[in-house]
Amino acid sequence: MVRLQSRLDALLAPHVHQGLDTLDRRLRPLLRSGLYQILYMDVPDYAAVSQTVDQARSVGLGRASGLVNAVLRAAARAGDDPSVHPHPDVDPAGFLSSWGSHPRWLVERWLRRWPFPDVRRLVELNNRRPALHVVPLDGDLEAAAARLSNAGAEVRVLTLPGSLEVVGISPARALEEVEGFVQDPAASLVCRYAAPEPGSRVADLCAAPGGKALYLARRARYVVAADPSRSRLRLLAENVRRSGLAIGVVQARAEAPPVQRVETVLVDAPCTGTGTLRRHPDARWRLGSDAPRRLSEVQARILRGAAVVVPPRGVLVYATCTLEPEENDAVVGAFLREHPEFRVEPPDDERLEIEESGCLEVVPQRTGWDGAFAARLRRLA
Predict the structure, then answer these.
(1) 90 CB contacts (<8 Å, ≥6 apart)?
(2) What confidence tier does 193 reach under pLDDT thresholds 50, 70, 90?
(3) How far apart are CA 342 and CA 373, in angstroms?
(4) For residue 1, which of 36, 98, 163, 313 is within the disulfide window of CB 3.0 to 4.6 Å?
């Protein structure tokens, strides 16, 4: 329902004569929920209306029962009417904001970078639940696929990121059948792009919940997994315990790394997360238009702190799950101007689609996966 918030509001608005904004703030989510059930969950009109009226009464809004009844019944009769949204040829940003249910400032910035069909595809993906992807710890994709198929799942092998797309069973059941972890292919590609030397040491400085640390530990000799959040560290520690891999978990801030010299340092920086909005649908409504700029300052500070522990010939990998240039290329460009001893050096991996800049960029509308960015920076001296 949160994914389609703006679309539902547009469908409800014609039936609230004084405007949705005039309603008690507790009523709007109830009306959205009722209409969502009617239009997208095949709940009978009378059942959804009755339930929504009961919910209104339960929160002390019994006096609005008549309004709830009338609005939902009228909206149900009108159905999923496309005419309530701006026409895409006339106001593409308005259409993607209303029908696509995204903040207008966000779709406007995306439309400045990509053509309308690409942004529409991105918006549509954000309004769907993501597929389940599992990474086997031993890397044996075919054996893991066979076990999952025998358990009743539909499985697609993704050899490039080294994972399985699984349909038909829950994540918990999948991990009962396969010793591994859940990770979107975009995150797996970031780990592959990081490419630590076999048997080397790695520091993952923004590690929770631990998927990248687990992926890297299959190749590295030892991984230090650090994160400032105690609650997120508990989840990370549980994932590490299940894996049996050589990973040390420590509470620390990336600006002050808990290591001295490590061959590969990964900074999976906090960001706006606009590449993962399908996983966090409410995040789109919490973000403000100044968020990319504000977070870029945090990211730059973390990157500077992490660089201190990278030895000569060592590698610093900066990664995000955002699509916004201010948090990606701009942060890396500013860092390189301040630190001429580093340069972008992608791995020697012909299967990865590397940008001309040498960075990795995974865009949802091209892949169907999450969005991700990574820059692999070699320290020369």
Answers:
(1) none
(2) very high
(3) 18
(4) 36
Residues with Cβ < 8 Å from 278, sequence gap 6 or more?
3, 125, 126, 127, 128, 129, 130, 364, 370
Where in the sequence numbering do the catalytic residues fall?
321
Alpha-carbon distance of 377 to 373, in angstroms, equals 13
Token pair 């990865």: residue: 352
Residue 17 pLDDT grade (very low, low, confident, very high; cuts 50, 70, 90): confident
> Parallel, antiparallel, or unpaired for β 163-167 and 132-136?
antiparallel
The half-sphere exposure of 175 on its side-chain side, counting CA atoms within 13 A, is 15
Residues recorded for the chain: 381
Collapsing DSSP to helix, strand or coil, 317 comes out as: strand
For 351-378, give one letter per residue: b (16+ CB within 10 A) or e. eeebeeeebbbbbbbebebbbbbbbbbb
d(CA 299, CA 205): 12
Q: Find, among 143, 132, 147, the residue nearest to 185 by Cα.
A: 132
In a 3-state reduction of DSSP, which class is residue 226?
A: strand
The pLDDT score that the predictor gives to residue 19 is: 86
pLDDT tens per residue across span 272-295: 999 999 999 999 999 999 999 999
Distance CA 223, CA 204 (A): 7
- Up-side HSE of residue 275: CA atoms within 13 Å toward CB? 28
Instruction: Tell me the pLDDT tens digit for each residue of 308-354.
Output: 999 999 999 999 999 999 999 999 999 999 999 999 999 999 899 99
DSSP 8-state class, residue 257: -
Q: What is the pTM of this model?
A: 0.93
Of 63 and 224, the one with more pLDDT: 224
Q: How many CB atoms lie within 10 A of CB 152?
A: 10
Q: Judge if the upstream peptide bond of residue 209 is cis by omega within 30 degrees of 0.
A: yes
| Cα gap 153→322, rounded to integer Å | 31
Say if residues 162 and 183 touch (Cβ distance below 8 Å): no
